[in-house]
Amino acid sequence: MHKCRYGTLGDVAKLFLRFAFIISGLGLIVQTSAWAAPVDITLNVVGSDSVAITDYRWLVEEDQSYPVNPGTPDSNSLSYNFHRSYMPVVKAGKVTGSSTTTITLPDNTRRYYISVLPASGYTLSGMPLDASKNQTSVTVTVNPQPVPTAQIFIFAFEDNYPINNAPDLPQETGLGEFVVQLFDMGGQVTKDAFGNPLGTTYTTDAGGNYVPAVMGDGVIKTLSAADVGNPAKNPHGLSAGEALVKYLAPGKYGVKLVAPYGQGWVETSTIEGTPTSDAWVKANEPRYFAEFGPTGHHVQFGFIRPFNAIPAPGAGQNIGTVNGRIVNMHMSRAPDYRFYAGHPLPNCWIGLNELAGGNGRGLFAQPCNADSTFTIPDVPAGSYQLVMWDTYLDNIFGSLTITVPTGGGAVATHSPGRHPGRVRRGTSLGRLDPDDDEGPMS
Fold this sequence. Notes:
Elements: E1 3-4, E2 7-8, H1 9-25, E3 39-47, E4 55-62, E5 89-96, E6 100-105, E7 111-118, E8 125-130, E9 137-142, E10 150-158, E11 179-184, E12 187-189, E13 201-204, E14 210-214, E15 220-221, E16 242-248, E17 251-258, E18 266-267, E19 277-281, E20 299-304, E21 307-308, E22 319-325, E23 327-331, E24 339-344, E25 348-354, E26 362-367, E27 373-380, E28 382-390, E29 398-404, E30 409-410, E31 412-413, E32 421-422
């Protein structure tokens, strides 16, 4: 049986259902409105191993979530109707000696959800039941204990070909020695499903029980290129920059990577608007993210550090300087839906990519100045992609195509009804400083 900080997963489920059963026993069943005609439904409980379950508790709640019918147009859609957070308990009971039972529900026009908790050996499970569609039977399938563990596949990469908050393989390489941190609703996770430190490896005994082989220290790091060929440090056949966290209880985890101290790395990629990305992992899944196939990672993190790889100008080629300031962007009050420049964006970064089909190499990356201004000097004439983001990843990664004119000098952008000026804006991150004396960019 897998354990969490509140006991086994089954213990948590039992606490929930016992509380519901106590409410039922005290007569605290909630009736939300007048009932229509009652309806009898047949409940059948079976294990996923085809074993009939004959000792279990059941609980029926009214399903007050918003009904979505795929493919059916609805002018009063879910966008305007949020699910309710409370589902009233309408009935509960216990069955011994039979896998089937008849339950009389109070209203044949409503939707319900039936939860089942076997006495032992199987997990909590449940199924919806729609009495309004004349459904009169339901089969609930439960899984045998112990529940298989889950795992998270992680990748850290140098985001420099181009700088774009996404992995571009094989040009971009993995980064080793980044520390993996996991979080759940209770805080940071340092133990596996068996209560041992993360990184513990296991063997199984004759009864199929997991027995610790080598105790971990709770620290998981991405694999360095030097350790790829070392079986002792790479027992799972990982590539550089990858990490695999095994023997986790199934669920949702927040994953964060901590860069090696003093090396200057800053994160560029996020899917949550923070340095943490979420991983949803199920029991007994393969190590990779199933939707993306065997090479897919559950979470991946791009990092970059300050560098300047702008090439020297060719013979007769002029250079220009890109100056600007990154400011936040905001929308005015309705009914005016235009965007306007806001305050300077703190902790911003600026990058420059070659413009080669959107997949050129990164040439420059630096943090902005304290006032959110930036300067990219000595840029040879030509077209480039300017990219911008912020240290804390609170804003959407932005990009902008710019052109250093053939004659060099100031880098101008144009928009309808606007005046040319130096580059001072980011698409999603911000716009030109409104106090700019060279004219606003849009």
